[in-house]
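Here is an idea for our session: we take a single protein and study its fold together. To get us started, please write out a protein record for me. Once you have written the record down, we can walk along the chain together.
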Amino acid sequence: MMLPKDKILCSATLPPDVLRNLPENVLDEILIRVPLRDAVRTSILSKKWRYNWCRLPELTLDQTLWDSTNQSIPFVTRFTDIIYHLLVLHVGPITKFILSDIANLGNYSKIDNLVLFLSRNGIQHLVLQFPKDKPYILPSSFFTCSQMRHLSLRYCSVQPPPTFKGFSVLVSLELYEVTISSEILENLISHNLLLERLVLQISSILDHIQIDAPKLKSFDFTGDIRILSLGKAPFLVKLSLVNTSPVVKGGKYLFKYFEFCPALEHLHLDCGSLPVLAAGSDDIAAKLSSPLNCLKCLYLSNICLDELVEFSPALCLIRSSPYLQDIQIKIEYVALNKLLFPVPDDVVNEIPSSFSDVTLNHLRSVKFEGITGKKTEMELVKLLLAKSPMLVRMLIQPDIENGSAETRLKVLTEITKFPRASPKAEVDYNSGV
């Protein structure tokens, strides 16, 4: 195919070695965006490129890198060779470093040396991920990384020295299945006054955590905990609490838990966290003492609407969030004979009157997952259709495993008869038949 004349003239005017004459900052941006092994291979392009990769401020050692090395050589040998070249040849600061998919290492002494190297070279963003069956004990040098801003750890053991006072400039902290005590975790969080994002996914049982992070914007917790206290969080926008503990104790009352979260926009609670926050409340008409005027998205996962300690706080949150735009509820099926505190029929009958002064003027989308046609479920569907004049779509996915095709058709027939406040509201019911 012939090129246009202007294209030919343009290419003819280019210098013979464009790559060699690119500014260093441009070269660095190019190398950062390719896998580390490819970046190292650019050293054969020219003498000027030979050591360009050695000054890369961002390095990633993950499965992509391991797969590109000679598989016939033992992993520990390949890993040792890579680490050796990094420690010997790299010059300048390393601001971001990712290490993941480590396997078949006899010990972690080489990683200890690597962490020491990073602590002395301005590390700001660090990701360390280790296998579940062999967690990594963080060395003392890790706790001297004074410029750390973003930290993500998976399967690590956190045992700081007594003199450790936290990472003073830390903005983002992610801890996945780390071994850490409640006291150390609380101290780690409380000393990071600039912290904006916090992710805790810890399956080991924790006793009590007091979250004091005045600039916190996002908090995602999954784990076993008996008491989780949230202090003043004026900038908190996103909150997810998934309590996987089979037995929980105490906790703040739902009415006061969100009192110091005026900016909250996204909220996710589950069957474990909802009863804790409710603290046994059975007031079906309750409202929060401080309404969630900024809340836009409410997600309730794996909750049983036939359990009073889960159904009541769910209604409370909906009633106390006048600017909700999206509601998602994933229902967990529980047989009637296994309910601990079933919702009485007279309480279900009170639902319409308890919402007599409530209109969800901003609600546009609703999703129910796992509906079986129980009375509490149907009343909630009916309520949201009747109270949402701007509703656009309601998606209902029935529980296929715990309901017959006949029951699902019966539910569909009943829902189609419910009055709708919004003339545009579409109900999409996947009956599965």
User: Anything to note?
Assistant: The radius of gyration is 28 Å. The chain has 14 helices and 16 strands. The mean pLDDT is 83.
